[in-house]
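Look over this record before class:
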Amino acid sequence: MSGSGNGVTRALVVWFPDWPLVAAQLAGELPDRVPAAVMEKGRVAVCSAEARNAGVVRGLRLREAQSRCPALVVAPADAARDAREFEPTLLRFDEALPGVQVLRPGLCALRARGAARYYGSEEAAGGAALEAASRLGLEARAGIADSVFAAEQAARRADELSPLLVLAAGASPAFLAPLPVSVLGDPQLGSLLIRLGIRTLGDFAALPPSDVRSRFGAEGLEAHARAQGHDARAVTPRVPPPPLDRVADFEPGLDRVDQIAFAVRPTAEDFVEGLRLQGLACTELRVQITDDADQRSERCWGHPQHFGANDVVDRVRWQLQSGPTDPRAHVPRTTWRSTGDGLAAPVVQIRLTPERTDQLGRRGQALFGGVDERLDHGLRRLQSMLGHGSVLHPVASGGRLLAERCLLLPWGEAPPSGTAALSTQPWPGTVPEPLPATVFPEPLPVELVDDAGSTVRVGPRGDLVAPPTWFRPGPREDRRRVRSWAGPWPLRQRWWDADQSRHAERFQILDDDGEAWLLLGEEGAWRAEARYD
């Protein structure tokens, strides 16, 4: 922050309303012009204008928000996504108004005096900032005042017709006085002030500083200064980090996987070399592919050690072969294009971004344990020839069905966040030990009938209508007599979700061939979930 001739400090703050929602839309995780919301800790953090028109407001729980707006589309909050999508805006601001400081994604500050001198006036500087945002197709508000806090409040109170609000020097205290104490951004302090009968910043600013310090401490004294229009924060221009991402542009666009993989190799080599010069190794890579229809495919790829140029090219090729990937999906795709197949639309740009890095010297092979380097090389060679989903490794997960307790992931890919925590949950209703040795990936249709030849049914109270007598493990198998049985045990989950609810019965039987089976009855049919070998 810099001072003017009369000693008044001035700051320019630019605010992008509902930035987490905008970032999710830019990333393709939420559609435009529909009721949408970003959820944080089970509550609505930000929602679109369409959702607000339907009655959705911040702080609502998901079920209540969906009851008000059944068409509501939601995405989880993601601070990394917010910062990543804000980076192009900062680059555009650096071109128009150098010296930007990021207060948080969606909110930035600049020194007003230098910008005003360059553009001729504070109004012109604010207009240049709004124009820079407009060229990116983003809605923004700007405020200029004697402090960062006052300028932020001015920006938040600008409207669509007048997106720039300039407060004259010395006018900040009068502007802040009628605002509620909640704008201080400290819920605990705001709640305490309201209980004490102090509801506006003007009331808070009128208190003696010595009383504020003794009652609220150093943090309360800083908030008291902000309420008076004296913000101690200075605008510190950010130092842009060295560019680590790399972009490959194709003009004209390429529509064959093998052509793109060949053309992106120099960019991949430059990407790895740029990280090496910084002493870094990429352990998680984000690949962003854009076609000439402005459709974007984006995915994060993990690596147990670090990415080399060949690994980067393989990830680009696999992403092209698998087509657009749903970022919320946990199950890898199993259908692949051939490297010579044409794509739906020509690719015009590929961006490689290091999502996670580590010091290069810390990524060596472990002395004890870990994955053998020759084994890892061989498995990755198989992946490069047969496709990303050709080599899978098991990861313990959570669930009541046996197939849900083991998640198969492509080799080298980290499990989804929270998988380890799910595997340690108690999961009431699961099958007790000892567990079956053979678990079928998909339950097999079987026949379980009573003495009259009718399919065994379970009554509304969970009891058998008639005991099982005969069992057929497959359509080509002979009937086997049921020697003994146990159950049924009810399996009820997600009764509140119409799409994922389950109402089934579990059964254990021993046939006269000495084989034991775990059966799952659902919708009048029986299937074999596993076999005890």
